[in-house]
Amino acid sequence: MLVQKLIERKWHARRLGGSSTSLPDIIAVDNTQTILLSIEAKAGTGDNLYVPADQIERCLQIKNMFRKYKITHAVLAFKFMRKKRVRHNGEKKYAKRKLLEYYKIADEYADRDPPPYIRCNYDGETYEIGRDKARICYLQNYRMPFQKEVSIKRI
Questions:
Q1: Closest among 23, 90, 78, 72 to 45, alpha carbons compared
Q2: Residue 106: which of 49, 47, 145, 59 has the closest Cα?
Q3: Domains in the chain, start-ordered, CATH in brackets?
């Protein structure tokens, strides 16, 4: 769906196959404005979504490969589904909730080898995961071309 949303806004976007191909999930370009996005996408029914370090690294490698574009970003896309998975009396069930999407810029990890694992929670807060602990990180929101506005939550 993310690829289709970008194409509808006159971007060129392709799904690349993700981790099985050692590439990011999506690459998208706006050649008119010379913008390139290397995107790792996660979706789920839980309260937390995770991006492993190697997947962030792949996004950064593609971003660096196309430095001739005026604007390049490694973007982490998080989609929290309308149904939340819950356990009730030992059974897996689903509760309704609002569908939420967050787009976070991961460019700051270009100088870290390896980059950290990243966790995003349902409220859009992001955390670096390392050595048995998580610490909050303030990844900048990216406004996708199909978004009217980006809600920014201050902590």
A1: 78
A2: 59
A3: 2-137 (3.40.1350)
Q: What is the pTM of this model?
A: 0.89
Alpha-carbon distance of 91 to 23, in angstroms, equals 36
**Tokens (6 digits) for 1:** 């769906």
Concatenated DSSP letters for 141-155?
A: B---TT-S-------
**Separation between Cα atoms, residue 153 and residue 138, nearest integer Å:** 10
Task: Summarize pLDDT for 70-118 with one digit per residue, the tens.
Answer: 999 999 999 999 998 888 788 888 889 999 999 999 999 999 988 999 9
**Main-chain dihedrals φ then ψ at residue 125, nearest 5 degrees:** -80, 140
Amino acid at 118: I
Q: Phi/psi class of residue 40: alpha, beta or left (left: φ > 0; alpha: ψ in -120 to 50)?
A: beta
Is 87:154 a contact under the CB 8 Å cutoff? no
Mean pLDDT of 8-22: 88
φ, ψ for residue 23, nearest 5 deg: -130, 165
